[in-house]
Design goal:
The complex is a heterodimer of chains A (410) and B (463). The longest helix of chain A has 12 residues, at 3-14. Chain A has a 14-stranded antiparallel β-barrel. Chain A contains three helices and 23 strands. Chain A has one domain (3-409): Porin, CATH 2.40.160.60. With 410 residues, chain A is mostly beta strands. The model of chain A is unreliable at 1-22 (pLDDT under 50). Chain A starts with a helix and ends with a strand. Chain B has 463 residues and is of the alpha/beta class. Chain B contains 17 helices and 18 strands. Chain B has helices at residues 2-20, 47-50, 59-62, 66-76, 145-148, 156-159, 165-171, 177-183, 195-203, 213-231, 249-252, 263-272, 309-314, 331-354, 362-372, 400-418, 454-457, and strands at residues 41-45, 104-108, 113-116, 135-137, 188-192, 236-240, 259-261, 282-284, 287-290, 293-296, 302-303, 328-329, 358-360, 374-376, 379-381, 433-434, 441-442, 445-446. In chain B, the strands form seven sheets. Chain B has a five-stranded parallel sheet, sandwiched between helices. In chain B, strands 2-3 form a two-stranded antiparallel ribbon. A two-stranded antiparallel ribbon of chain B has the order 7-8. Residues 441-463 of chain B have low confidence and may be disordered. Helix content of chain B is 36%, strand content 13%. Classes of the chains: A mainly beta (410), B alpha/beta (463). At the A-B interface, helix 1, strand 9, strand 19, strand 20 and strand 23 of A face helix 1, strand 15, helix 16, strand 16 and strand 18 of B.
Chain lengths: 410, 463
Amino acid sequence: MTRIRQLGEILLLTLLVASVALAGGFQLNEHGANAMSQAGAFAARANDGSAMYFNPAGLGFQTTPSIMLGATGIVFNSTFYGPLQANTNQKYEQAKQLFTPVNGYVVYPVFDRMTVGVSVNNQYGLGTEWPSAWPGRFLAVKTDLATWFITPTVAYRIWDQLSVGVGVAYVAGTVKLTRGVDTRGIQTPAPVSSTLDMSGHAMAFSGGLLFKVTPDLSLGVSYRSKAKVDASGTATFSPDYTALGLPQGDVTASITLPATGFAGIAYRLMKNLELEADYQYIGWSSYKTLAFTFAANNSVVSSAKNYSDTYILRIGGEYTMAPWHFRAGYLYDHSPVSDTYSEPMLPDANRNGLNVGLGYDITNHWNVSVAYFFLKFSDRTVQNTAPEISFDGTYHTYANLFGADIEFKF
Amino acid sequence: MKATSVTVAIFALLLAVLVGSCTDKAPGPVAGLGSISVKSYVSIGNSLTAGYQSNGLYESSQIYSYPNLIAKELAASGAVVTFVQPLWSDPGTPIAGTTIASRYEILSLVGPKIGPAGRTAGSPENLLYAAPYNNLGIPGAFIYDFLNARDSNTCYSALGGTKNPLFTSTLRGIGTQFQQMRLLRPDLVTFWLGNNDVLGYATSGGAVPVTSPAVFGALYKTSLDSIRAAVGTSGAIVVANIPDVTSIPFIKTIPSQGLVLTQAQADGLNLATGGVFHFVAGVNGFLAITNGGVKKLTANDYVLLTCPQDSLKSAGWGSLKPIPNQYVLDSAEVAVARTTVAAYNGIIATNAVSHNAVLVDINSLLAQIAASGTTYAGQELTADYVIGGVFSLDGVHPTSKGQGLIANEFIRMMNAKLGTSLPYVDVGSLPGIPAPLSKYQFGGRAVPYYPPDALQALQLQLF
C-alpha cells in the first residue's frame, strides 16, 4: 500500500471520529473524545478517566495516575415544517446554538489493586430556541437545561481479570424555560411571555463490573441510578399585568433524570485493532409528567411527557499505529418520545450517529484525542399530538459535534 | 491493511448515506387552488358574516370577519381576489338615535363591568366605493331580506316595525343583496342566513316569533336557485347551517340554579310563597315569569345575559320578585328554538345537495366548542363568557378568534369538497377582547391598578 493511499485513508477515518452524542431525550453521552470517537462503545474497555462515566470498574485496571480534561462543541440545527393544524408547510428554524459540555477526570491508584478517581461532567443538557412569535410560542420558545455531575469513584480489582467499581454522584442542575402565555379570551396590549429560571440538586450512584475473559476478549456492564432533582426558582411574566393575577414569584418542579445501564463486549481482532459493541438501556419511563407549582396562587401547570424506556446500540473500534490511534464508531439511538407527546420544547426522533477520531501520543505522558461526530435525527412527521399540544408537523434536525481531550499520565 | 480499507469504505458509505438523506424540500401541504379558479368572491349573510362583535360593527372587528379571513387565504393560495367590505371607523356603529358607539368594552376587570364606553360613534369609511361590496353581510338580515330588501324601509324587521339603517348604508340603493352579488359575477359565494329567523325568538325570551320552517324552506330554496343561476354550473357555492341557540354564552352564562339560600332564608321564602316552590337550603332555581305563570327554574331553563345582574344580586330578583319573562328562555321555548333550528338545518342540508353546494356544519362546530372547547398549539378556546376567547362581549357574536375558527371550518370543507388546498388561519395570532390594561408598566404594576383576583372575578360568581 502506497504512502499516499495510507494518508488518504487516515484522513478519511479522521473525518469520522467524534461522538458528542446528544443521546435520546436530553441525555448527553459525550464525555471524553476517545470514547466519543468510538460512538461511546466503551463499557467493556473503559481504559481512561472517562471510565467513570461508561464503566467505573474500568478504573480497576488503570495503574497509572492520570488527569484528563476536555470539552465538546455541539452545533445544533433544527427546523419545523407546519403546523399541520394550519394546513401549511411553513418553515420555522431554531436559532443555531452552540453547546459545550466539558469533562474532567482525575485517576489515582491508591493500593495494589484499588484505584480511586473523581469525574466532573455534564451528563444531561438541552437547548432549543424557536422564533419568539412563531405559532408554537405557547409550547416553547427558549429552553436551556444544564447539569453537572461530580462523581467520586472507587474501583477494586477482585481478581487479575475482574474489577468492580462504584461511584456516588452529586448532581447540580439548572433549567430556564421561556414561552408565551395564553391569556385566553383577553387581549393584552403586548403579548405576555413567561420565564421560569430554576435550579436544584440530587444524588445518584453508579456501579460496574469489567471482566477480561481473555487478553483479547472483555465484557463490561455498568449502571447509573436515576436522579430526582427537586428544582426551585422564580417565575417571571413580562409584561406583568397584575390585574390578570399571573403567578409571578416562586416556582418549583421535580425532574427525574433516568437510570441508564451499559452492557458491552470488546474483542481484539488483531494486534492493533480493537472492536466493541455495546447495548445501552435508558430508563426514560421515569419522565412521565413535567409539573410546575407556582407559590403565588398555589396552581400547578402540568404537561404529560410519557417518555418510554429506550436503548442505544453502539459499535466502535480503535486501530493503533503508534503514536497514532485511529477511531471510528456508529450508533443508533432510539427515541423515547411518542408521536402523541412530541412537542417543540425537545424535538426528538430516532438518531443515527457516525463518529471518527484521532488520538496522538505526544510523549509517554501526554496524549491528545480529537473527535468529530455527525448526528442525524430521522426526519419525523408527528400527527395526532395530544390535545394540550395540538401541534403536528415535520421536524428535521441534525448536529455536528467536535470534541477534544488532553490526558496527562504520571 | 485490508481491514482498514474495508473499514474506511464502510464508514465513507455510511457517511454518504447520512449526508445524502438531508432533505431540502419542505414536507407538508402546499397552498393552492386545485382545479378551481377564484377571481370574484362574494359573501352573503348577517352580522356573523359582517364581522359584528361585542354589540357593534367597527373596522377592527370587520377585518377579522370570516369572509375576509377566507379571502386572505385565497390570496395566499394564488387567487387574485379583491375583497371590499363596508367599513365603519372605530369605535363603530352608534346606539340607535344617539351618537354614542354601541360597542361593549370591558370597562373594569373588577366585576367585571361590561358595557358601552361612552365613545363617539364612528362613521362609514367607503360609502362611495364604485362597485358593490364583496362582503354583503348585513347585521339583522333575515332569509327574506336576501331577495327582497333594498333599504331600511323594505327589510324584514321593518315589516315588524323596526327599520334597520345598516341596510341603507350597505346596499346604498344599488339593489338587494342578491342583485349586488350578481353584479360582481362571483365564482365563489358563501351564504349564511337563518340565524336571525330563530335567534330573535331566543334572545327576546320568546317575544319575537320565529320564521316558520315552511316559509324558511321556500325562501331558502328560491335564494339558492337564484345564486346557482347567477354563478352558473362551474361557480362554487358554500352554505353554512345554524348553531344551537343554547351553545352561546348569551343563553348559558347566568346560571338558572343561581339562588343559594340558607335554611332560614328557604323557610322564609316558602312561607311567603305558600310552600308552592319548595325552596331548600343550598342551590335553588330562580323564580321567573314564564308563559305558564310564575315558575321555579330548572336546569333546562335559561336566564339571558341581558338580565340586570345587580337586580339578581341585591334587588331580590329571582326570589321575592320573579325574573320578568323577557330575560328567561324556559324549557318550552328552548324546545321551540331547537326544533326550529333542526328544521332549518334539514332544509339547508337538502338544498346544499340539490344545488351542488358545499355544506359547512357550524352547528356541530359550536356544539363541540360549547361542550369541551378546542385546543390549538397550547392554547385553549372555550365558549365561556369573556375569557373563553370564542364569543365576544355581547355573548352572541364571535370574537376575531371565533371568526377564525369559523373561517377554518369553511376552509376545511372547501378543501375537502372543492379540491383546494387553502392554508388555515392561525387562530393564535388573531386578537381577543381588549382588556383595560395600560401599555406601560410602572414599577411592575399596571396603571391603573386592579386587585390581583380580577381574573377569578371574570367567572361571574354571583353569590
